[in-house]
Design goal:
heterodimer; A: 113 residues; mainly beta; globular; B: 110 residues; five-stranded antiparallel beta sheet; 11 strands; 0% helix
Chain lengths: 113, 110
């Protein structure tokens, strides 16, 4: 079984552009989580989605950031009008049920010029 | 406020030198505690889940234990390939939120 797949692995954007990060969960997992990681910092929760629904977005900035997990296709984390401070590694994780261990992808490293 | 604190931040050991990593937490309503290993440029790799005080889990040279306030990851006779950042995460509260510690960077010298 394939694990969590994230693409692209590296993404470079100029200030003001849009960044779109994709995540395909483990087959059979319907719970998806997005995290942001800065150097020397822990993983910070951003958003938790279940198919077609946002369950918890308390960790996501109110502006410019959005996430979706459609019925078909990968989960998408979208950052509009990117700024330098958005540079980070963004990780996606999935689980079969909310209480079970989350399995992570290898992340997307976003760099803003 | 719910918190997860890992210590030490970094640890250098000689190959074969056993030690322990600490994860202390203050949360209301612990649902589970998770240990992950993260290699540079990679995502966290799941190691263990612990659910209640007194529980222990083992895998190769690693053993995880849990009390009401902290968890330890014991590493016995480590090898250079055990070098990585070890992350602790706690799931707690009615919303099952998961909170990660900042990790311990472990370096095993040959």
């Amino acid at each position: 079984n394939a694990g969590v797949m994230q693409n692209p692995r590296h993404l470079v954007r100029r200030r003001g552009q849009e960044a779109r990060l994709r995540c395909s969960p483990v087959k059979g997992h319907s719970h998806v989580y997005w995290y942001r990681q800065l150097p020397e910092e822990g993983l910070k929760f951003m958003v938790y989605l279940q198919k077609e629904n946002i369950i918890d977005e308390s960790g996501m900035p109110k502006e410019r950031f959005s996430a979706e997990f459609p019925k078909e296709g990968p989960s998408i984390l979208r950052i509009q009008q990117v700024v330098r401070g958005d540079s980070a590694a963004y990780f996606c994780a999935s689980s079969q049920h909310p209480g079970q261990p989350q399995h992570f992808g290898d992340g997307t490293r976003l760099s803003i010029l | 406020e719910d918190q997860v604190t890992q210590s030490p931040e970094a640890l250098r050991l000689q190959e074969g030198e056993s030690s322990s990593l600490n994860c202390s937490y203050t949360v209301s309503g612990l649902r589970g505690l998770f240990w992950y290993r993260q290699d540079p440029g990679k995502g966290p790799e799941f190691l263990f889940t612990l659910y209640s005080a007194g529980e222990e889990k083992e895998k190769e040279r690693l053993k995880a234990t849990l009390t009401k306030k902290e968890s330890f990851l014991h590493i016995t006779a480590p090898k250079p390939e055990d070098s990585a950042t070890y992350l602790c995460a706690v799931q707690a509260g009615r919303d099952d939120k998961i909170i990660f510690g900042k990790g311990t960077r472990l370096h095993i010298l040959p």
